[in-house]
């Protein structure tokens, strides 16, 4: 089990908490309603790969929580005003000389543009840096995904380059841009940086 897990994190109207089996109805309602909104960005199984059956929600949650117990993952749901609006997962947690992890996320189209996702990413990143002791956080985003790229741009993640045909998404192998942040780049924390950005741009909401 990772130090500082399970944990609940909050900033204003946005909160993160561990995903749980009883989230099934709320998660499935939001995910199903946003199917077209999310289709271009969600992973798919490449042809010829052993596909098996798509896991049920219960199976997915059990897998995520077992990975968390093994210290490899932090699976959160995103809440806005107490309502489930998305998911954020810290995955690929690696210790030792690398001490890094990947961030992946999706959010309900109804709350997009309200600062929910940058707030969630800032909360998770600060927890990973200052509570559990990681050194680097990485986000890989399709070049076409302008909203997601705006999230990391607002937070000051560095663009590190292109990974050609990196992940199988929406039926084909897709290029991804790599964005990263090291703990030394935000000694004050990412959440204070996001608060300052919002104040400077007159942003409200998340």
Model description:
With about 210 residues, this protein is of the alpha+beta class. The chain has six helices and eight strands. The chain has helices at about 25-35, 35-40, 55-70, 115-130, 145-155, 190-200; strands spanning about 10, 15-20, 75-80, 85-95, 100-105, 135-140, 160-170, 170-180. It has an eight-stranded mixed β-sheet, sandwiched between helices. The longest helix has 15 residues, at about 115-130. The chain is globular and about 45 Å long. The two termini are about 30 Å apart. The mean pLDDT is about 95.
SSE topology:
Elements: E1 9-11, E2 14-18, H1 24-33, H2 35-39, H3 57-69, E3 74-80, E4 83-94, E5 100-107, H4 116-130, E6 136-141, H5 146-155, E7 158-169, E8 172-182, H6 190-200
Parallel strand pairs: 5-6
Antiparallel strand pairs: 1-2, 2-3, 3-4, 4-5, 6-8, 7-8
Structure summary, number of beta strands: 8
Radius of gyration: 16 Å
Q: Tally the helices: what do you get?
A: 6
Major sheet attributes: 8 strands, mixed
User: In whole angstroms, how far apart are the ends?
Assistant: 30 Å
Beta strand %: 25-35%
What is the arithmetic mean of pLDDT? Answer: 94
Shape: globular
Q: Return the structural class.
A: alpha+beta
Low-pLDDT windows of residues: none
- Give the oligomeric state of the chains in this entry, treating copies of one chain as homo and distinct chains as hetero: single chain
Order of helices and strands: EEHHHEEEHEHEEH
Record keyword descriptors for this entry:
alpha+beta; 206 residues; single chain; eight-stranded mixed sheet
Question: How do you describe this structure in short?
Answer:
The chain is an alpha+beta fold and 206 residues long. It has helices spanning 24-33, 35-39, 57-69, 116-130, 146-155, 190-200; strands spanning 9-11, 14-18, 74-80, 83-94, 100-107, 136-141, 158-169, 172-182. The model has no long low-confidence stretch (mean pLDDT 94).
């Amino acid at each position: 089990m990772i130090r500082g897990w399970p944990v609940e994190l909050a900033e204003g109207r946005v909160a993160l908490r561990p995903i749980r089996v009883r989230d099934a109805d709320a998660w499935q309602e939001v995910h199903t309603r946003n199917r077209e909104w999310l289709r271009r960005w969600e992973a798919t199984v490449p042809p010829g790969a052993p596909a098996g059956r798509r896991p049920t929600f219960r199976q997915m949650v059990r897998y995520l929580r077992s990975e968390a117990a093994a210290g490899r993952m932090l699976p959160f749901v995103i809440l806005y005003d107490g309502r489930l609006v998305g998911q954020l997962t810290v995955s690929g947690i690696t210790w030792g000389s690398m001490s890094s992890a990947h961030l992946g996320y999706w959010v309900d189209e109804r709350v997009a543009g309200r600062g929910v996702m940058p707030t969630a990413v800032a909360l998770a990143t600060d927890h990973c840096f200052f509570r559990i002791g990681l050194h680097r956080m990485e986000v890989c985003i399709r070049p076409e995904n302008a909203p997601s790229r705006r999230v990391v741009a607002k937070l000051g993640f560095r663009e590190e380059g292109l990974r050609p045909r990196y992940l199988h998404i929406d039926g084909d192998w897709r290029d991804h841009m790599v964005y990263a942040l090291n703990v030394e780049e935000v000694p004050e924390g990412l959440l204070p940086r996001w608060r300052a950005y919002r104040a400077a741009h007159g942003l409200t909401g998340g």
